[in-house]
Task: structure prediction
Amino acid sequence: MNDVTSQITGFLSAALRRRVEPDDDYFAQGFADSLFALELVTFVESRFALTVEVEDLDLDSFRTANRITEFVRRKTGAPESGEAHAEGS
Amino acid sequence: MSPQALQHGAAPVAIRSAAWYMPEHTLPITEVRTLDEIERATRDGLGIDTVRADDRLSSVTLAERAARRALEQAGLDARDLGALVMVESRVQETFLSSEVTRLQHRLGADDATTFSVGGLGCVSITPALLTARGLLAADPALDHVLVVHGSKPAAALRYRHPVTVNGDGGQALLLSRSGPIRVRDIAQLTNGRYWDLFHVDYRDRPTAQWREQCTEPSTYSFRLAMETRNQLSAMLGGLLRRNGIGQGDVAGFVSQNLSAGSFAFLEDSLDIELLPACRENLRQYGHLGPNDVFLNLRTALDREELAPGDLAVLINVSPVAAWSLLLVETGPQEDTA
Result:
């Protein structure tokens, strides 16, 4: 797991009070409400110094830690590093 | 999307008197029907203890009782009204008939220009204010516009998963060019991509089977929620800027009453604190649709959470989707109750 993904899974596990793996879809599992979504997006914005605009609000970019990692890379232009993950891009 | 705003300096509109009618019967939240255990658990976490409920009273009757009180407070007769504007009921009792002309007839508001507005859920109070402002600006001979709404649930169940519980209640706002509460600015924004995110199918089933459905719960809890954060933040910044004030100049923020979670969401999204009156009214009355924000403002004034001369921002959000902000200035409150 790379550093970005591990920061995200750390946040998700704390926020949802359960262990979250990089490909766990917490929206499909019914753990996410609007307060959690706000907490998640605010975390991503502040931790990775980016702004989530209305046009960025595709749930598929936020439904797993690995998807968020890809989103962060797209937004910041950061190169891929660390282990590859199961999902395609 | 269709942004609209009337800036400070445009035609004045103010609330001369305001009144509400709440049915006497109080329904404990534990007696509000749900369909399963998940819904029951969500219902019990909304921050609502009771709602007012009387199935014998129609939307029109609720609005009428509030209207009579507002007129009495202002010392006016219904014949003095230049216009009667109803925020449409969520569900009419019969099709093709007119609830607003029924109310006109019951009140005896024979000379009032009479019609309904709506289409934006609880945000529909805003087009009613825009309409009143336009009528007052356009016709110097027209002095009073009565805006009314009777809140009743649309579906067979009062519980609306996972959002809120609807109560019954009527509201009437008598609008004029001057009065104790000045509406200094109005901002409204809509995004039609969510037009039927929540809906009630009815054509192929008996009324008892009408159910409100959220077609995409994840869209509601993620995309629309985050769009609400972004849109309201931008709207609030714009509202404050064009009125030459900062967030610190606003003495109080008021929102509609959906749930304790929705209050926390707005407070965190906008970095604001809602006036305590919002949580108090949510606890007592549940959600009253377009009536919530002015009821909360009234309660905040009664509880001295706001003082004469204070500025307040009233926030309304609807999943259709619509967002609105009202900047109001409070004055001496002798005429309102």
Observations:
- The CA atoms of residues 4 and 56 of chain A lie 19 Å apart.
- Chain A has one domain: 3-76.
- The helical segments of chain A are 3-16, 34-47, 65-76.
